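Justification of resources, computational component.

The compute hours requested in this renewal are based largely on the per-chain cost of generating structure records like the one below. Each record pairs the submitted sequence with a full structure-token output. That output is archived, and it is also reused by downstream analysis tasks.
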Amino acid sequence: MLLMIFAALALATGPTLQGFPPSPVSVSQPTVGALTDGAPVIEFSVTNGAKQTVTAWEVRVELTLSDGTSGGLSLAREGYASFEGVVTDRGQEPPFIRPGASIVGTIPVPDMRGLSFAVRGGNVVWAIFEDGSWVGDPERVQANFKRRQDERRAMQEIVGALRTGISTGPDGVAVALTLLTPKDSATEDNHAKRLMRENLKRLARKQTNSAFPVNVLPYLQQLLASYEAPLAAAEKHSQPKAGGPPR
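The structure output for this chain reads:
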């Protein structure tokens, strides 16, 4: 299954919400804290004032360094699959934000090369809602939707290959593996397809090394079942609507 939660960390100049319409998603004044080992972190809360759930968002914290330069740290979270219940958050706070709710964001502070820093403030760079509406930086929003669409296409290929393999019969593993193997270096590939190929290769070895016939159909059906719900979630959340908060 694809990993649907990600974080982006960068100490550099970057986008803010200046010039964009007001957002119903807000961020508190960031504060500096520390982990148990003393490593500094920046903490803030993100609040959803809209009528729909936020399924992905990015917050940028602006810093001033002691040498007079400035920069920022960003945290981006993707949560549509968690919102749809097709992935677990392993005991962590889910990355989506329901209407009227808040969640806490934490950014580890990287090595500042001996410089101290002051936190100037934070802003929500962009946010995507459950119906595909969005606010904030359009380029960042489109990049996130493109990533969702790439995930959707990969899962569509995986599901299609597994269904074809199941319908083929005893040679289904080999058929599915062939369908998911890139034809050349220009063929699009990604982590999910590579992982599925490894699963299929293990099944193929199981068939080859067994002294008795192995019915691989239940294994293929199990793999297919593990991708059908994530694919449905990706298809539901991969198309953007016009900019502006949900109405």
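The chain has five helices and eight strands. Residues 23 and 105 are 18 Å apart (CA to CA).
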